């Protein structure tokens, strides 16, 4: 199970005294659940180094259907892909699932700082690399695995990233996360609830039996956990 011990793993990995000087250029913010950090095809105004909370990167199709392509917590910087390759926008929107506490700096300032600091650039490159590997696993998972095992996988990863056993999510949000119809999500959540692996009341999902929920999750949970573990190793 991946559970960072520090506030933001990327910041923590920066060498001193550079870390203190870098932090002095940032402000600490709290951002409520439901906030869109940046829209698809929009250059983000800020970059956020999350210290607690959870965001999802979601891609929507022209017919309105949506699926999650990434789940980020305090392991790195958001956005990350936008910082490399000379393209400051992409197909995903980024939305806050669990209230964020984060250090933030203007996106353009972080880009300039990456040109000045080789160590910062290297850590951000590693962050992008790991997240790209996680994305490829999630892409296959979204296509090949059933809603029930994907829901179990998502809840376990959300738990590992936040340290919380419960999360508030509407059925619409859950359907978007899983790229499934609401009825499919209702059936999946109902099946996990009947097996007493989770409780689900008024949008609050709580993990009741972590070990058995791991058994119910697809193999992607283990693969993604291993990728989160030793993130900058
Ligand atoms: Zn899977």
Short description:
The protein is α+β, with helices and mostly antiparallel strands and 233 residues long. It has two domains: 11-142, Jelly Rolls; 143-228, Arc Repressor Mutant, subunit A, CATH 1.10.10.10. It contains nine helices and nine strands.
Structural description of this entry:
The structure is a single chain. The protein has 233 residues and is of the alpha+beta class. The protein has 2 domains: 11-142, Jelly Rolls (Sandwich), CATH 2.60.120.10; 143-228, Arc Repressor Mutant, subunit A. The chain has 9 helices and 9 strands. The strands form 2 sheets. Strands 1, 2, 3, 4, 5 and 6 form a 6-stranded antiparallel sheet that branches. A 3-stranded antiparallel sheet has the order 7-9-8. A hairpin with a 5-residue loop joins strand 3 and strand 4. The longest helix has 27 residues, at 118-144. The chain starts with 8 loop residues before the first helix and ends in a 5-residue tail after the last helix. The mean pLDDT is 92. Bound molecules: zinc ion. Residues 141, 145, 150, 153, 218, 220 line the site of zinc ion.
């Amino acid at each position: 199970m991946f559970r960072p011990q520090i506030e933001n793993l990327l910041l923590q990995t920066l060498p001193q005294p550079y870390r203190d000087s870098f932090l002095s250029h940032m402000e600490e913010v709290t951002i409520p659940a439901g906030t869109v950090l940046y829209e698809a095809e929009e250059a983000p105004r800020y970059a956020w180094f999350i210290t607690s909370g959870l965001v999802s990167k979601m891609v929507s199709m022209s017919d309105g259907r949506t699926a999650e392509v990434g789940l980020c917590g305090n392991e790195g910087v958001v956005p990350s892909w936008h910082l490399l390759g000379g393209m400051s926008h992409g197909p995903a929107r980024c939305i806050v699932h669990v209230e964020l506490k984060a250090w933030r700096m203007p996106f353009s300032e972080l880009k300039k700082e990456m040109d000045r600091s080789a160590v910062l650039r290297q850590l951000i490159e590693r962050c992008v690399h790991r997240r790209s590997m996680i994305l490829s696993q999630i892409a296959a998972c979204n296509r090949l695995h059933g809603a029930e095992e994907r829901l179990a996988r998502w809840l376990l990863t959300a738990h590992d990233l936040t340290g919380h056993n419960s999360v508030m999510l509407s059925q619409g949000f859950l359907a978007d996360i899983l790229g499934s119809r609401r009825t499919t999500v209702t059936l999946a959540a109902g099946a996990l609830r009947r097996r007493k692996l989770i409780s689900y009341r008024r949008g609050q999902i709580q993990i009741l039996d972590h070990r058995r929920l791991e058994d119910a999750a697809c193999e992607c949970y283990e693969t993604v956990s291993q990728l989160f573990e030793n993130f900058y190793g």
